[in-house]
Amino acid sequence: MQRNSLRLDAGQAWTDAMAMLKAAPDVLLTVAGFFIMLPMLVLLMLHWPVVAADSSTTALQSWDNWTSANSPWLLLIALIGAFGRQTILNLILNGDRPTLAEAMQASVRNYLWFYLTALAVSLIQSGGFFLFVLPGCYLMGRLFLAETVFVGEGIINPLRAMARSIELTRANGWRIFAVMAIIAAGAFIFMLAVSSVVGVISALIGGAGLALFLAALVVSSVFTGVYLILLLVSVAAWRQLAQNGNVRRSLSR
């Protein structure tokens, strides 16, 4: 198998990702909103995370307690979110330009393997973070294309999809992680700014229920936006890095 040594043009990947979003904003935002934002919004409304801030240890313990207590919800969100991401990828990468219903039907057929791919990527990255953080950061970059490869190249074997991602991202692991970190940092700053405005509005209007809803809406919306943008960037990056002849021509447009 030919090795890939292309350098990712991060600026072009961002431009291409935004072009994909502008080409079909209604359907992409609808799918992302229903399958990613809505489940997270419901969870935050029902169980808002209260993390103690008196010390880093206590804060981490509080967060661990919250995730453990809500693990069934978080698993359900992961299952629903994976289906949403797969549907978005089917909409973008299927050369036959499927309708939303057709894209969802295609997702159903291979959903189990897609979710196992996403789960395997998550577990490997978590293991890397356990090993002093930096390996996890690097693995995030190298496995960034696994889900896109699964749909775009029809590689339904999770191990092969991850291996293909590692092949395509050769010499680009840290570059891709930097792109992911910049997007996440920008989203976090945006969330802080919007949360400040929402806090003022909530204080003026009053009502704990409204304040909780607005806070949950901001967090879930930003979370969804990051997921969607990263997914589109992964498609753009895959189209760049797969220009070594190993991808079907009809899917690399």
Please provide a brief summary of the model.
The protein has helices at 10-23, 25-46, 56-69, 71-93, 100-130, 134-142, 146-152, 158-168, 173-205, 208-241.
Portion of residues in helices?
over 70%
Shape: globular
Straight-line distance between termini: 22 Å
By helix and strand content, what is the structural category? Answer: mainly alpha
Which stretches of 5+ consecutive residues score pLDDT under 50?
Answer: 245-253
Question: Given the structure, what is the number of helices?
Answer: 10
Largest sheet: none
The fraction of residues assigned to DSSP E strands is under 5%
Query: What string, H for helix and E for strand, traces the elements in order?
Result: HHHHHHHHHH
Instruction: Name the average pLDDT.
Output: 87
Could you tell me the radius of gyration in angstroms? 19 Å
How many β strands by DSSP? Answer: 0
Give a structural overview:
The chain has 253 residues and is an all-alpha fold. It is built from ten helices and no strands. Helix 1 packs across helix 10 (208-241) and helix 4 crosses helix 7. The relative contact order is 0.16.
Q: Which key features would you list for this structure?
A:
single chain; 253 residues; mainly alpha; disordered C terminus
Layout of strands and helices, then pairs:
Blueprint: H1 10-23, H2 25-46, H3 56-69, H4 71-93, H5 100-130, H6 134-142, H7 146-152, H8 158-168, H9 173-205, H10 208-241
